[in-house]
Amino acid sequence: MSVSPASPVSARAAATVLLLRDRPQGMEVFMVVRHHEIDFASGALVFPGGRVDPDDAAIAEALGGASHATPIHVAAVRETFEECGVLLARRRGEQGLVGAEVVQRLEAPRAALCRREAAFADILAAEDLVPATDLLVHFAHWITPRTQPKRFDTHFFLTVAPEDHLALHDGGEAVDSVWIRPADALDDAANGRRKMIFPTRLNLMKLARETTAEASIGAARSAPVITVEPEFVRAVPGGRELRIPLAAGYGGEIFLAHDMPASGGAPPR
């Protein structure tokens, strides 16, 4: 199904987080495998993320203009906590992130949050926590093509994963998880060992240029983020050619997509 580009569906705000860590074999990124029964990108290897909720705006407003405190940044922190149990938050007035003991204590509220039976604002308030939105470094911005029936306006962020937080999939939308080098994830996708959608593949290509978390974050801080809204060029054997802005920094303008660009019921991640 498609819609007329002259009257596109509004794109819903969303956030995606690339959690990074350094290991002797190189930098790794945390990724989850979507449930096989989910309509969009079932079984695909993706980054944690999801839609911005109305409550995210209220949390951002309550932060009172703190650095980077927008609803999209709050959504990034919330979705990271929901999907993989990593909580990018601090005690009010402190600089260091909360430790693993706090995250473990919040496991039951996290499960309730995933079931939409608890509010993120209440979980934060109970521990006097504030989201560490300043640690999120803007990496990419993708918008679903205007011809798609469901559209998302998704911002991708980089951050270093807290060493003592155990990243683990939620068991609901995500049924598996892995720390993996970007180049290895791309190789798995190229050889059919993993399913991967177009935005994920290109953002892994971009991430794979650096070998450490520090270098990746430094490169992201110094490069402008150019909005990507893929445009169909033509059908070719094996897929379709899509055009993205050359200035977006993906090393080209025309790319072969073996799958649908971001569409369906979930944002690109």
UniProtKB/TrEMBL annotation:
GO terms for molecular function: hydrolase activity, acting on acid anhydrides, in phosphorus-containing anhydrides; metal ion binding. Keywords: Hydrolase, Magnesium, Manganese, Metal-binding. It comes from the Bacteria. Gene3D superfamilies: Nucleoside Triphosphate Pyrophosphohydrolase (3.90.79.10). Signal peptide: none annotated. Residues 10-202 form the Nudix hydrolase domain. Its cofactor is Mg(2+); Mn(2+). The keyword Ribonucleoprotein does not apply. The keyword Ligase does not apply. Transmembrane segments: none annotated. This is NUDIX hydrolase.
